[in-house]
Write a structure and sequence with these properties.
Elements: H1 2-14, H2 19-47, H3 55-73, H4 83-91, H5 100-121, H6 123-129, H7 156-178, H8 190-205, H9 215-230
Subcellular location: Cell membrane
Family: Belongs to the MIP/aquaporin (TC 1.A.8) family.
GO molecular function: glycerol channel activity; urea transmembrane transporter activity; water channel activity
Length: 248
């Protein structure tokens, strides 16, 4: 009886009543889950020389991570997990503009934190694979675990167009799924369908730039790698670079 009373009081004290704070924490958690699974899929593929993962498992991990993220906080924050989606929601007047910068900061912060978590999780594997040198290019590079980099033939213009089209298809697909005038998705299965949409885009548009489709997904971990020892090259676009491994 005493234990139940203590737990009840503890839940009351820990309960967050501010709606914005609840939404921010939900968005932080859902984005963290999304990014941790996504980056871990890439880390397993790269650091084990594709013996315990490959391009398909990396794509599947990223797509299923979207599903898990939506189930984690879809009813609390909407589980945007992506500044592009938050912007699209603002443009169709389904999300207030004043919340947009807050969500972008939270999504980027969560991506940064998840990059740190994956770095710790795969610390030994990363250093073993890279022979003790953290590089952005070359056969033993590991930067692509965390952020996406272009293939050696892709120009800046082509890379920009690649991301505009890929992200645009994602937004159109998600908006179509949300539109009640269309054929409805069975209730509760919306995250599964979104995951399949992401997987289809990855399988068809991932070759040029790794298919990030998400500014926070790319910038947060990229900033982490800059601070963790990969250096300023993570922010440079180098055409014709020699690349190994590969991200999503």
């Amino acid at each position: 009886m005493g234990t139940c009373s203590f737990l009840t009081r503890a839940r009351g004290l820990l309960r967050i009543r501010n709606q914005l704070a609840r939404e921010c924490l939900g968005e932080l958690l859902s984005t963290f889950v999304l990014m941790t699974i996504t980056l871990s899929s890439a880390a397993q593929k790269v650091t084990f020389f594709e013996t315990k993962g490959n391009l398909l498992t990396s794509y599947l991990g990223g797509a299923l991570a979207v599903m898990v993220g939506i189930y984690t906080a879809g009813g609390i924050s909407g589980a945007h997990m992506n500044p592009a989606f938050s912007l699209a929601m603002c443009l169709i007047e389904q999300f207030p503009w004043w919340k947009f910068p807050i969500y972008v900061v939270v999504q980027t912060l969560a991506s940064f934190i998840s990059a740190g978590a994956v770095y710790i999780l795969y610390y030994d594997a990363i250093w073993h694979y890279s022979n003790g040198t953290l590089t952005v290019s070359g056969p033993q590079e590991t930067a692509s675990i965390f952020a996406t980099y272009p293939a050696d033939y892709v120009s800046i213009a082509n890379g920009f167009l690649d991301q505009v089209i890929g992200t645009g298809v994602l937004m159109v697909g998600v908006m179509g799924l949300m539109d009640t005038r269309n054929k409805p998705v069975p209730k509760g299965l919306e995250p599964v369908v979104v995951a399949l949409l992401v997987l289809s885009i990855e399988c068809s548009m991932g070759a040029n730039c790794g298919c990030p489709l998400n500014p926070a997904r790319d910038f947060g971990p990229r900033l982490f790698t800059y601070l963790a020892g990969w250096g300023p090259e993570v922010f440079r676009w180098v055409e014709g670079r020699e690349r190994g491994g590969g991200g999503r």
